[in-house]
UniProtKB/TrEMBL annotation, chains A, B:
Matches recorded under Pfam families: Aminotran_1_2, GntR
Organism this protein belongs to: Acinetobacter genomosp. 33YU
HTH gntR-type domain: residues covered: 1-69
Keywords: DNA-binding, Pyridoxal phosphate, Transcription, Transcription regulation
Protein name: Transcriptional regulator
Keyword ATP-binding: no
Keyword Mitochondrion tagged: no
MF terms (GO), sorted A to Z: DNA binding; DNA-binding transcription factor activity; pyridoxal phosphate binding
Domain of life according to the entry: Bacteria
InterPro entries, alphabetized: Aminotransferase_I/II_large (IPR004839), HTH_trans_reg/aminotransferase (IPR051446), PyrdxlP-dep_Trfase (IPR015424), PyrdxlP-dep_Trfase_major (IPR015421), PyrdxlP-dep_Trfase_small (IPR015422), Tscrpt_reg_HTH_GntR (IPR000524), WH-like_DNA-bd_sf (IPR036388), WH_DNA-bd_sf (IPR036390)
Signal peptide coordinates: none
Length: 472, 472
């Protein structure tokens, strides 16, 4: 261990044990040099390391202070099951997506991580090499179900997680949403009942609306994320054909459901023979420890269509996702040949090269560390400066923070006010149709901390503050 | 003019005037040198030029012979209007597409030109350069409606044809089929009537089936391709909401409808306020002369959604198409954000660079010349060797030949026999549901002539011969 790491380690212990309290001033650099006997450089490195981990923060000309520790807060108890025969979220989502896509808009509302973190240099190098070769563009090998070598590599990743997978189970798609839509089309018919989480990626609402499905939602559980009791009640009451669930780093809230609950969900799905479209596009963005299991892991009867993508780890501009389609592979390929035909050949070839040589694992490790650091910085800053009537939900994965405003505030109005200042945020009406869920915001915090980011965050905070004060 | 061109020109005149007859032997190289006073090299160049144009052919050790001249044959009179409430072409198409996609299969059944002709070296060079730059992958600028610079360049191409176009009228899509499907979704509702050509790209049947539309077909006209009388009759009888038509280098037959008829179609569309999904993906593959007009040219009321792509000119592996969406732009972007989200960013950027510097025009000129040469070679060879009870339809555009077998033969059986020999062809049941249209084949002839191609074509001919003889 380096000397700076030693020092950082002992200060971290003082913070985590509560010996040093939140907002307590740390010894100045000079004092610390004298106390510890380490060089100034060593002390500076240690402080910077702690700052990058979100454990301490600095104020100009005042020195370093202990940051507040992150305590996982329970979600508010959400309201009960709702049945929606008609959803009208589409035009809102469209207006929203168009408003935040301008380059001038600060992308706190974006669903994608900062592109600076993605497009791994090694992948760009491989793309540069393959792009110069004519055969990289040949469509034949890239036609549905997609490049065989790529499907083999994806199958291997499933096997590493203990999920027996054959390359023929995998279908490469034009991104994760394409995988989800194709999967739903393959299992559901107009008029079928679909079960969604109450607060959920808007793509699920849109897909259900487009296919003419009847939507039932279950509330999030305040502690566990997933409300198993409500789930059981719904599937005993309604003839649910298919569920569309996100259980790892759930979008927009961020929670990850425990393996124990996943096992119980799987058991109920099997008992009732219900299909599951599993949206697992954030599966790689866990912090530390082990990768959470997917529902596919517990699936013995080919009821789970597991959908994922490279968009959240390597860049959305690539448009490559996949589905573990199993017996639905033919049906899904069929749908592809009627729509997008195939996924870009060059990029499939580049991904094969990139995944073959463990570049992906290395990239993911760096990415996870950066996301964790940035998210902690955003969390501490918001926690410190938002009015106390607001709540910030932190979960150790992904790059979203879920912010609760006082229930008298309308998050759409906050969004409207901020977009006028060229700052995007994602208001909760994008994710939930319930009138009781209109006062939440999703903030993308995948950005390296700098003055521009801090200023934008200050504007978010100020805009919320003003509305809170006006409401008092 | 070079001497060899002079010589080739005078021989061409002798052939076209009928002074030299089909299969008549030309003077040997030596004789020609003596007669003309030109060098052996000049005479050889002239003969090779004429051969590449399909005007003469060579037999080993026998010398050069005059090829049969191409006379455009009228199509067989097709049967009358048909109304299909339920189409079941999907599983046939799927089985077919899967069977021909193996690399070992000779791709006479493919819908795409030989990839050797596409992926222009300059485009590959640009891709190689841009692929090394991180900013090429940024999704923001590529989101719907697509890269602005690319839309400007496409709009300019419309303007060059006299079609007033604003970049905001254009939406970039994941290939041509995606453009067609999105356009149809934007204008048609389940239960609406759609008018199709009787023999048509299967994607049109599939889209109609998927959207739950009622299909009316009109027959092809034996001389003009498009049967204006049948068209008028149908739109006066049925409440047609939308037509899906291909009028330039029609797939699978190959004809191009005259500007005069296009004008009359447009007039009728306007009178009856019927939308048109115009499939124009072969618009650039005309031979010589001028680019045929699109229906968009005659459209004064924004009824035409003109769909095209780079798949048939630069390579299907890119997956970039577009639609002139006009007032439907928002609706179509909306549908994109719910499905594929966006088109690959890198490739949109590369196309901007490629199209900006006239590389595309240069590439198209070479491509057209090659396709014309190859198609003529295929035509002459098939004409010469197929049983006389077969007919080969040649049109001066694209890269398909449409072959009529004796009506007692079933083209599906010919396809089945050939796929056993690893040769793909496209049988007419893929394109028409009429029982009277089961004895046609579409042959892709975009391949440079060589022994392998000739052998495969010989197998096609032999397989047909055997079936003709067995039927006598």
């Amino acid at each position: 261990m380096y000397k700076s790491e030693q020092l950082a380690h002992s200060i971290r212990q003082l913070i985590e044990s509560g010996t040093l309290n939140a907002h307590e001033k740390l010894p100045s650099l000079r004092d610390q040099v004298q106390r510890s006997g380490f060089s100034l450089m060593t002390v500076m490195n240690a402080y910077q390391e702690l700052e990058s981990q979100g454990l301490i923060y600095s104020k100009e000309k005042s020195g370093y202070f202990v940051a507040e520790q992150i305590v996982l807060k329970p979600l508010e108890q959400y309201s009960v099951v709702s049945l929606n025969s008609k959803i009208e979220i589409n035009s809102l989502v469209f207006k929203y997506l168009k408003s935040i896509q301008h380059e001038s808009v600060v992308p706190f509302g974006s669903a994608f991580p900062d592109s600076q973190l993605l497009a791994a240099p090694k992948l760009i190098q491989i793309m540069g090499q393959l792009a110069r070769q004519r055969q990289s563009y040949d469509q034949t090998a890239s036609l549905p179900p997609g490049n065989l070598a790529l499907r083999k590599l994806i199958a291997q990743r499933y096997c590493m997680q203990g999920i027996q997978t054959d390359p023929d189970d995998i279908v490469i798609t034009s991104g994760g949403l394409d995988a989800l839509n194709l999967s739903l089309q393959a299992v559901a018919q107009p008029g079928d009942y679909i079960l969604l989480q109450q607060t959920v990626f808007y793509g699920a609402w849109q897909a259900a609306e487009r296919l003419g499905l009847k939507v039932i939602t279950i509330p999030e559980h305040p502690q566990h994320g997933f409300d198993l009791e409500a789930f059981e009640q719904v599937i005993q009451t309604y003839p649910i054909k298919v569920c569309w669930l996100m259980l790892n780093a759930q979008n927009p809230i961020g929670f990850t459901v425990s393996d124990d609950i996943k096992y119980k969900i799987a058991k109920l799905l099997h008992e009732h023979q219900i299909y599951l479209i599993e949206d697992d596009v954030y599966e790689e963005l866990f912090y530390g420890g082990q990768k959470p299991l997917s529902m596919k892991y517990f699936d013995q009867q080919n009821l789970v269509l597991h959908c994922s993508s490279f968009s959240k780890t390597l860049g959305a501009g690539f448009r490559v996702g996949w589905v573990y389609a199993g017996k639905f592979s033919d049906h899904i390929q069929h749908l592809q040949l009627m729509s997008t035909i195939s996924v870009n050949a060059l990029i499939q070839n580049a991904l094969v090269e990139f995944l073959s040589h463990h570049h992906y694992e290395k990239h993911l490790r760096t990415l996870r560390l950066s996301l964790e650091r940035y998210k902690k910085q955003f969390y501490h800053y918001l926690k410190q400066h938002l009015p106390s009537s607001c709540e910030v939900y932190y979960y150790p994965s992904g790059y979203f923070l879920w912010v609760k405003l006082p229930s008298t505030l309308d998050s759409m109005q906050v969004y409207e006010a901020l977009i006028q200042q060229d700052i995007g945020i994602a208001p909760s009406p994008l994710f939930s149709v319930l009138p009781t869920q209109q006062h939440y915001l999703r903030i993308n915090c995948s950005f390296e901390w700098n003055t521009k980011i801090q200023n934008a965050l200050d504007q978010v905070i100020k805009t919320i503050q003003q509305r809170v004060e006006a409401n008092l």
